[in-house]
Amino acid sequence: MANQQGDLGAALEPVVRDAVGAAGFELEQLDVQRAGRRSLVKVVVDTEDGIGLDEVAGVSRTLSGVLDEHDHVLGGPYTLEVTSPGIDRPLTKPRHWRRARLRLVKVRAGDETFTGRVGDASENDVQLLVGGELRQVPFDAVDHAVVEVEFKQPPPEELDRLGGGSQEGER
């Protein structure tokens, strides 16, 4: 059964990726599960600047039409679930790090785990403010990283250190 699910996902991935791309978004994840005679198609979409509820609804309508055209692949009824990534999504791509600019992140790199505030991110590494010190961390050294939820405003001196003190709300 798992192989059939993988085959369904592999068969639908190009079609879903093209439809999501044509709508101006990026496909983050596609998961297809069979539940009896019905399939559950879970699609996670995003953009560099994030995605709103109205945009998710629009992508859902678009994908529903596309999947209806490819009903032969699904082989019957399906449930479509379109969503955006949650805050607990691991930071795995440079654009994830750029969106997390000035946010607090927890990073595991090798044997070391630390918390730092995100500065500028290139295609290869990210600047982090860790314990008052700026560090350049290559993405290939990061095993796992997630945004930490903060319940109060970050200290202004940390934002100033990362060049974001006067750019409140910018991501």
Automatic annotation (TrEMBL):
Domain of life: Bacteria
Record bears the keyword Lipid metabolism: no
Keywords: Cytoplasm, Ribosome biogenesis
SUPFAM superfamilies linked: YhbC-like, C-terminal domain, YhbC-like, N-terminal domain
Domain Ribosome maturation factor RimP N-terminal positions: 16-88
Cellular component GO terms held in the UniProt record: cytosol
One annotated GO biological process: ribosomal small subunit assembly
Keyword Methyltransferase attached: no
Spans annotated as Disordered: 152-171
Xref: Gene3D superfamilies: RimP-like superfamily, N-terminal
Any one Pfam family match given in the protein's UniProt record, by short name: RimP_N
Listed Gly residues bias regions: 162-171
All copies of domain Ribosome maturation factor RimP C-terminal, residue ranges: 91-151
Major subcellular location class: cytoplasm
Family assignment from sequence similarity: Belongs to the RimP family.
HAMAP family linked to this entry: RimP (MF_01077)
NCBIfam families per UniProt: PRK00092.2-2 (NF000930)
Role this protein plays: Required for maturation of 30S ribosomal subunits.
PANTHER family: RIBOSOME MATURATION FACTOR RIMP (PTHR33867)
Protein name (record): Ribosome maturation factor RimP
Species the sequence originates in: Kibdelosporangium phytohabitans
Source taxonomy: Bacteria, Bacillati, Actinomycetota, Actinomycetes, Pseudonocardiales
